[in-house]
């Protein structure tokens, strides 16, 4: 189903489904009440990763593998991530790729591979690893992630950033990008890592506490969807706080897009705007991590 054929109320319901404890069954049941044909519209929004990957794991420009590392203070003290190395001997500037609120799904792994094709040593951590790992579908992954202690999960992401920054193939220059939950993580990493983070590109992520913004030292490129009321409500105050702190930042709002527009697995995906956003992301990292 084409994205323009889906009722806006179904998009709003899907956003609630993604960011709450709503089950798939309840999502479809509520969609049936919202509008005629609502169930079909709702089903069209459910993720479908088949044949959507842009860079395959067999691509000869990269080498992908899973790595485990210590994560003191995290969910279990251990973490696993998807490490993708570009061709060549390195060292390479490093990029952390942080997933949404459902674990390391195929889309996020593809983003890590795309980063590696551009010459970055990429690590995509799986926040669900301590409780069994991404389960193979987003519905179960969402429930698993919601049941984790948020502070410990964030600690796992912070430790992942430190791990890839210090990796033997890393140049020591670190960038971070993330989507939805991961965008919020990138904003918080900018606060907590200070000069240890060299560039951040959060996509439609929660802003950090405004009282903490003065601690941000990394250049930021903050990416927003145009129609994303929950996240965009934070934008004016975040922008004002960054300006007051004299931080280096730029914010982009992508016309006609909704929350999740970079993720190609649902009709929220906007191919044209996602391409522009990714090109800007890569260019920003190449400039700041050189």
What this model shows, in words?
With 290 residues, this protein is of the alpha/beta class. The protein has 2 domains: 3-45; 62-260, Rossmann fold (3-Layer(aba) Sandwich), CATH 3.40.50.1820. 39% of the residues lie in helices and 22% in strands. The chain contains 10 helices and 8 strands. It has helices spanning 8-18, 24-34, 38-45, 106-117, 138-146, 150-165, 181-193, 229-232, 235-244, 271-288; strands spanning 62-70, 78-86, 92-98, 121-125, 170-179, 199-203, 220-227, 249-258. The protein has an 8-stranded mixed β-sheet with strand order 1-2-4-3-5-6-7-8, sandwiched between helices. Helix 1 packs antiparallel against helix 2 and helix 2 (24-34) packs across helix 3. The termini are far apart. The mean pLDDT is 93.
Layout of helices and strands:
Blueprint: H1 8-18, H2 24-34, H3 38-45, E1 62-70, E2 78-86, E3 92-98, H4 106-117, E4 121-125, H5 138-146, H6 150-165, E5 170-179, H7 181-193, E6 199-203, E7 220-227, H8 229-232, H9 235-244, E8 249-258, H10 271-288
Parallel strand pairs: 3-4, 3-5, 5-6, 6-7, 7-8
Antiparallel strand pairs: 1-2, 2-4
CATH domain class of the largest domain: Alpha Beta
Structural domain tally: 2
**Per the principal axes of the C-alpha atoms, what is the gross shape?**
globular
Overall average residue pLDDT: 93
Q: Look up the CATH topology of the largest domain.
A: Rossmann fold
What would you say the CATH architecture of the largest domain is?
3-Layer(aba) Sandwich
Short description:
The protein is of the alpha/beta class and 290 residues long. 39% of the residues lie in helices and 22% in strands.
């Amino acid at each position: 189903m084409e994205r323009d054929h889906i009722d806006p109320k179904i998009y709003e319901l899907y956003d609630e489904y993604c960011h709450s404890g709503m089950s798939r069954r309840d999502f479809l049941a509520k969609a049936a009440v919202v509008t005629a044909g609502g169930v079909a519209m709702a089903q069209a929004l459910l993720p479908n990763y088949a044949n959507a990957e842009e860079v395959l794991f067999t691509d000869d420009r990269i080498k992908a593998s899973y790595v485990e590392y210590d994560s003191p203070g995290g969910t279990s003290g251990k973490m696993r991530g998807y490490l993708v190395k570009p061709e060549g001997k390195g060292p390479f500037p490093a990029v952390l790729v942080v997933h949404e609120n459902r674990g390391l799904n195929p889309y996020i792994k593809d983003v890590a591979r795309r980063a590696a094709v551009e010459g970055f040593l990429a690590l995509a951590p799986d926040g669900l690893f301590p409780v069994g790992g991404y389960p193979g579908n987003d519905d179960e992954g969402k429930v698993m992630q919601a049941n984790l202690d948020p502070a410990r999960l964030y600690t796992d992401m912070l430790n992942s950033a430190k791990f890839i920054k210090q990796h033997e193939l890393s140049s020591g220059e670190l960038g971070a990008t993330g989507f939805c939950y991961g965008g919020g993580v990138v904003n918080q990493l900018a606060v907590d890592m200070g000069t240890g983070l060299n560039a951040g590109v959060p996509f439609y992520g929660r802003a950090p506490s405004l009282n903490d913004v003065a601690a941000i030292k990394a250049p930021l490129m903050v990416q927003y969807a145009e129609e994303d009321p929950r996240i965009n409500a934070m934008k004016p105050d975040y922008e004002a706080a960054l300006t007051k702190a004299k931080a280096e930042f730029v914010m982009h709002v992508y016309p006609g897009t909704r929350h999740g527009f970079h993720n190609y697995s649902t009709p929220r995906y906007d191919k044209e705007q996602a391409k522009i956003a990714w090109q800007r992301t890569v260019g920003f990292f190449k400039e700041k991590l050189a």
